[in-house]
Amino acid sequence: MNTSNNNDSTSTNSNKNASLSPTVATNSDASVGSGRASQDNSHLGSSIWNPSYVNQSSQRHPQQQQQQQQQNSQFCFVNPWNEEKVTNSQQNLVYPLQYDDLNSNESLDAYRRRKSSLVVPPARAPAPNPFQYDSYPAYTSSNTNLPGNSSGQYPSAYQQQQQQQRQQQHAYQQGTIPPSQFGSRFVPSLYDRQEFQRRQSLAATNYSSNFSTFNSNANQGTSSIPVISPYRRLSAYPPSTSPPLQPPFKQLRRDEVQAQKLSIPQMQPCSSKNDLQPVSNATPKFRRASLNSKTISPLISVTKSLITTYSLCSPDFTYQTSKNPKRVLTKPSEGKCNKGFDNINSDYILYVNDVLGVEQNRKYLVLDILGQGTFGQVVKCQNLLTKEILAVKVVKSRTEYLTQSITEAKILELLNQKIDPANKHHFLRMHDSFVHKNHLCLVFELLSNNLYELLKQNKFHGLSIQLIRTFTTQILDSLCVLKESKLIHCDLKPENILLCAPDKPELKIIDFGSSCEEARTVYTYIQSRFYRAPEIILGIPYSTSIDMWSLGCIVAELFLGIPIFPGASEYNQLTRIIDTLGYPPSWMIDMGKNSGKFMRKLTLEESGTSTQKHRIKTIEEFCREYNIVEKPSKQYFKWKKLPDIIRNYRYPKSIQNSQELIDQEMQNRECLIHFLGGVLNLNPLERWTPQQAMLHPFITKQEFTGEWFPPGSSLPGPSEKHDNGKGQQRDHGGTRHYNNAVNNNYVYNSNSSSGGADSVDIGTISKRKENISSDFPNDFVATHSVQEGPTNEFNKLHIVEE
Ligand SMILES: Nc1ncnc2c1ncn2[C@@H]1O[C@H](COP(=O)(O)OP(=O)(O)OP(=O)(O)O)[C@@H](O)[C@H]1O
Fold this sequence. Notes:
- Keywords: ATP-binding, Cytoplasm, Kinase, Nucleotide-binding, Phosphoprotein, Serine/threonine-protein kinase, Transferase.
- By secondary structure, this protein is α+β, with helices and mostly antiparallel strands.
- Helix content is about 35%, strand content about 10%.
- The chain contains 26 helices and 20 strands.
- A 6-stranded antiparallel β-sheet has the order 5-6-7-8-10-9, with helices on one face. Strands 1-2 form a two-stranded antiparallel sheet.
- Strand 12 and strand 13 (about 505-510) form a beta hairpin.
- Bound molecules: adenosine-5'-triphosphate.
- Adenosine-5'-triphosphate binds near residues 376, 378 and 789.
- The site of adenosine-5'-triphosphate has 25 residues, from strand 6, strand 7, strand 8 and strand 10.
C-alpha cells in the first residue's frame, strides 16, 4: 500500500514535471548528474534514486560546483556509474543554437530537454578503451570524408593493427591457427564473459563498428569464412566512427537506425556445446540509463524508475516524498475546528503519508482509510520503527467520544490481557494507544473485510450453511466469554465482525465502543437498529441477551444476504419483528418505557378470549399521534414468517440439479430455523444463552430430529409460532406448542437485570446508528439505505426476492 501510495504521489509529481522534462536521455542529459550534485540532496538519505555520486558531488566546494556547472553548459557530464567527470566523446557536438525553433528566451538546457528523446540513451560512460583502434574512426569506403581517411592520414599504429588482423584472419582460413586462437586474438576478449561485460558497460558500439569494419575489409580479400560479431549491434548508440552529428541530429540518428536495420543477421556454425551458450547483451538496443544498474528497459524507465529517468533528464528535477501532494482521506476535508486540524465533525483531517504520533516507536505512517464510524476514522498505518502494518482508530476530538473511546480501550485491554491473553476467543487485539493533536488514537491489529463487505462481494446472496456455521461458532465462542465476564458488546452487526484474512474463515469481533458491563447498563439507546433487540426498542432493562438477539439477526442475514429486519424507523423495526416472529410477551409491553409509543392496549372486547392484550399501532395511528410521515413498510421477502422465509429462499445453484443435495439442504434449513427460533426469542429471559446455543445441532452438526431442548432449561425449544394478527398464535407444523406470552415460571425481576433502572440516554455520546430506509419500488425489487457505514451501498442495491 505504501508503495502504491507513493506511486500515486510519484505519478502526480511526474505529471507535474512532464512538461518540464519530456522523455530525455541524450548525451547532453548526462550532465544532469553534476547538475543535481549542486542541489541540496541532504534530504535524500539512501533512497533508491540517490546514488552515492549525488551525495559525493553535493559535498563539493561551492566553487567547484560553479565550475562544474560551467562545464555542464559545455556538455561535460559526471559519469553516474564511475564517478569520473569525463568529457563526453561527443562534446564537440555543435548544439543547434541557430535552430529556427529555438526560442531566444529559452535556456540551452531547456531547449535540449524539449528537443531530446528517450529513444537514444545517454552516451555510455566513456572509460579506458581496450581497443586502441577504437580511438580512431574506422575506415570504410563510405566515409571517405572523415578526417584521417584513405588519403593516408591514419596513425600508423592503427594501420599496423588492421594489417595484423588481416594476417590473422588469413592464417585462420589457411588453418595455421585454431579458431579459438583466431577469435581470441582477433577479438581479444570475445569469449571472455567478464571482459565482454566490462566492455558492454563501455561504448560497445565502438568495438562493434570496428569489428564489422574489419569484417568487411576481410571479406574484400579471399576470405570466404563469414566472421560474425557475436554481439547485437548497438545501433542506438552512435558508433564512434560516425561523423559528429549535425543538426538536425535527431533525424540523422533516425536515418542511421533505419540503415542499421538492414543488416541481416547471419548464422554461425555450431561446433560445440559452448557455441550454444546464449550471449546476453547487457546494453541492448534502446535501453536507457539508470543509476543503480547499467541499463534498464524502456518500460522500467518510465514506470518503476521514472524518478531516476527524470533525474537524468532534468537538472532542475528534485523529488521529495514529503513534498508530494497528499491525498486527503477525510471528508469533508476543510479544516474548521482544532486549529484547522479537524473538519466540522471533529474528525482529524487525514492525508496519505501523514505521520501520527511523535514518540520514536509510536510513529505511524498513514497509508489508507479502512473505515469510518460514529466514533472516528480507522486508517491503515505502518509503524515507522517496526514496519508493522496496523489499523489506527483516530477518535473524534470531542470529549464525549474521547470518554467513550477510553472505555473501549479499557475493555479491549481487559479482554486482551486478562480475559483472553492467549488470543483464542476472536477479540480484536489492541497494540497501543496515544494522543495525536487532541485525538485519541487506538492501534489495532490489521484485519480484513467485515461480514457486510463479504456479503456485498457475494452480490448480497446468502452464504452456504457450512460457512454460516463456521462463523456462528466463532461468534458464539466470543459471546460465551463475554457473558462469563458479564460484558455486553452492545453493537454486534456484520460491520463489526471482521475476517482475519481475506482467504480464511476466521473472524474477530471489533468495536467495543458501546460495550458495557452487565451491571452498568446506563445507556438505553444502543445497538444498530437492524440488530436492535425488542427489549431495547420497548425500553426495558437489558442484559447480555441483547447480543444474542443481534447474533440471530446476523445469522439470518448471512443466510439471506440481506438484513432480516431492515427497519426504516424504530416503529418500522418493531413492526417487522412482530410480523415475522409474533408479539413479545405482555409483561415486556407492560414494562417497557417506550411501549406506549408503539403499542395500543386492547379493550376486553377486542382481545376476546385471546391472551393478547396489546396490538401495534397502525401506521396511520402512529403518524397521526406523532405528527410524522412514516412510509409504509416495504416487504423484502415474499413470505412473512421466519420459517417460510428460510424454507423458500432459493437454493444455491450448485445443488439445484441434485434431489439428494436439495434434501440435505432442507434438513439443514430446518435445523437453522430451529436455531434461529431459540436465538431470536422475543423474550430475553427465554432466549438461549451463547452456551446453550453452542450445543444446538446447527453448531455441533449432530443429527437434528426436529426437537431439541437447551440443556439445563425447563423450557421447551422454540416451535413455529405465528401470530395470526388477532393476538392468537398458531403452530405451523411445529412439533410443540409454544406459548410466547409471559411464562409464569419467569417472573421478570428488574432488579435482577443488572440495575438498568437508572438508564440515561446520552444522546450523541451513545452510538446512534439510525438505519434509515428509503422507499422501494415494489415489494420484491427494492432498494434501501442505511445511514452510516458500508451498508450505504445498499442504497444502490436491487434486492430481488427469490
Ligand atoms: N482492526 C481493523 N482492521 C481493519 N479494518 C478495521 C479495523 N477496525 C475497524 N476497521 C474498519 O473500520 C470500520 C469502523 O470501525 P469501528 O466500528 O471500530 O468504528 P466506529 O466509529 O466505532 O464505528 P461504528 O459507527 O460502527 O460504531 C469497521 O467497520 C471496519 O471496516
